[in-house]
Design a protein that fits this description.
The protein has 242 residues and is of the alpha+beta class. Helices cover 20% and strands 23% of the residues. It is found in: Cell outer membrane.
Length: 242
């Protein structure tokens, strides 16, 4: 029932609200501020993340260790799932609240806790489900796994084989979850001298939508925020309109 209410709210939002163009003007196109390059950005752990924890020389304290031969393959389910409370259960240490922590912060937490048993613990933490979804007019629409905290738009497009012939490069959309809302930006990739503003920094969890020139073009004045939804729901709505 809550999902239905959210969809109704979103539909009314698009039908009734006056929205403003995310682009500054036709000669200087800039993505919304939150989509622009931020050298300080670091991924923060979220609910439902899959995390592997490696402690050098201590297989009994490791989950999905990148160090041990028998624990190294993550396809065997060697991970810790962040639960709905934002916590994980770590061997010996017990329950740890990890939601909102960066990888370096979690490493330091674990090192400090493990010093009760180890003199100089060497700890590595990896989030196994960092990914970006690419939909629409690319050669291989897909969910792309990434290892680093961010990747540029053109890098992620290259991983899907590039744009199809009918891709509408004037209206590429990026969706990003922020709390209960989804932020959206619209990019015109045909402006050749605007690469710094259009080849933006993508974060794990983002969705890229490349619409088709064949279909009715969606309103470029799309709102900067879609309230009370997820990136998946927002993408489904936008794809249904394109």
């Amino acid at each position: 029932m809550k999902k239905l209410a959210a969809i109704v709210v979103i539909a009314l939002f698009f039908c009734s609200c006056k929205t403003q163009n995310l682009l500054v003007n036709q000669t200087e196109i800039k993505a919304d501020e939150s989509f622009q390059y931020n050298k300080e950005y670091q991924y923060t752990i979220r609910k439902d993340d899959k995390i592997s924890i490696s402690v050098w020389g201590e297989d009994n304290l490791s989950v999905g260790s990148v160090y041990g031969i028998y624990n190294s393959n993550e396809v065997y389910g060697k991970w810790l799932m962040v639960d709905t409370n934002g916590t994980i259960e770590m061997p010996k240490i017990g329950t740890i609240n990890v939601e909102g922590k960066t990888i370096p912060e979690l490493k330091e937490m674990l090192k400090t806790a493990l010093k009760k048993w180890l003199i100089n613990p060497i700890v590595d933490v990896k989030v196994l489900n960092k990914e970006i979804i690419v939909l629409g007019e690319v050669r291989n629409p897909n969910t792309v796994a990434i290892d680093k905290d961010y990747i540029t738009l053109l890098e992620i497009i290259s991983k899907t084989g590039g744009f199809e012939f009918y891709a509408n490069l004037k209206s590429v959309k990026i969706l990003r979850q922020e709390g209960e809302n989804v932020k959206v930006t619209n990019l015109d990739l045909t402006v050749g001298n605007n690469i710094l503003n259009t080849n933006i920094q993508l974060h794990p969890g983002d969705i890229v939508i490349v619409p088709s020139k064949k279909n009715k073009e969606f309103d470029k004045r799309i709102a900067t925020i879609i309230p009370l939804t997820t990136t998946i729901s927002a993408a489904a709505i936008i794809m249904g309109v394109l």
